[in-house]
Amino acid sequence: MSLQPATDTVRQGRIHDVDALRGFALFGIFVVNITFMASAYPGNLVTDPSFISPIDDAARFIVAALFSMKFYLLFAFLFGYSFTLQMNAARRAGRAFSARMLRRVLGLFILGAINIVALYSGDILTTYAIACLLLLAMHRISDSAALRVAGGLYGIVLLSLVVSALFIDRSAFMPSTAEALENAQEQTQAMLGSVSDIVAFHLDGLELLVVQAASLQGPSALAMFLLGMVAGRRGLFSGVTGTEPVLRRIQLIGFPIGLAGGIAYAAMGSDTNTAAVAVSLVTAPFLAAAYVATLLRILHSRRWSAAGPALAPAGRMALTNYLGQSVIGLLLFTGIGLGLAGSVSPVGLLAISVVAFGAQMAVSHWWLSRFAYGPAEWGLRWLTNLERPAWTRQRR
């Protein structure tokens, strides 16, 4: 994967816009994930009392309004788009697609399980792997059927959130604020412990991860997979020039709706409020689409033409970089590394995410100038095709 089934090189050349979009999505996911890597307070849906200044609140508001859920949905859409590229690669190679994809899904699941236990308990690879099995089962359905199923899945998730917000008293099964704060403090301290303490902390969060995957992330990801598959079939990103009028229309519609929804989500308490999550679920796709349209226009502009070459290598190595972000979090915040858990402000986390992703872009560029694939992509490709891929780039 990169974080999707598609890191295969197309002989006639890759769709570099997809790589750049994937890199952009990877950055947005890191901005959100690092808050959970750095402290147990966000996972317990409470604010760390050490960071309650106006600037801390502003940083949390920015992440919630502009990043939360938007990039996860974009990444899932790109996964579905790249699924069609895998289909094309199998067709060109004269191989059975389903067998290849099943092996790829197995590889993703194994890597995700390792990530959960050893690196970061908020992994999405296992969720993607299971959702991809369902996508594989439906990959022959028509575009119209795929769109109906995607809409149905998204509607079911939204309906469940609305019903929960209106009729279910969360206080009946959620800990009180005082209990949540105490739990967060204890868990953050566990992050500073030994390897066994950290593994135990990751495993303690497994039940919540499964619930979230089954109720929200899994169905919404599968819906985006299906939309991406339809877009891939229609070659949505092939031949884009950046001047298409539809891109401006997407911006004009997506930004007002998406930003209004993101602001409402943040103002209502983000993940602490089920109604806020429902608002975000409805409006986040609009903001994600506006981001895509904006980036496509930037990628094809003369002034910002360097953006594509900067982002695309990180997107080509998205699986390696995603796992690398988990490693960064482990080394920065846990007792295995610097032990910074609970001591970095929201503003500091934003700065770290920008610097760390900038380093990943530079390393990705350097790596792919010498090697054909990222390390994780290379291993996954080997398992997918049952053939050892070339390690170094073939010079022409």
UniProtKB/TrEMBL annotation:
The chain crosses the membrane at residues 21-41, 61-81, 101-119, 125-142, 149-168, 209-230, 250-268, 274-299, 319-341, 347-368. Residues 231-386 form the DUF418 domain. InterPro entries: Bact_Transport_Assoc (IPR052529), DUF418 (IPR007349). The keyword Membrane applies. It comes from the Bacteria. The keyword Membrane applies. It holds the Pfam family DUF418. This is DUF418 domain-containing protein. It comes from Gordonia caeni.
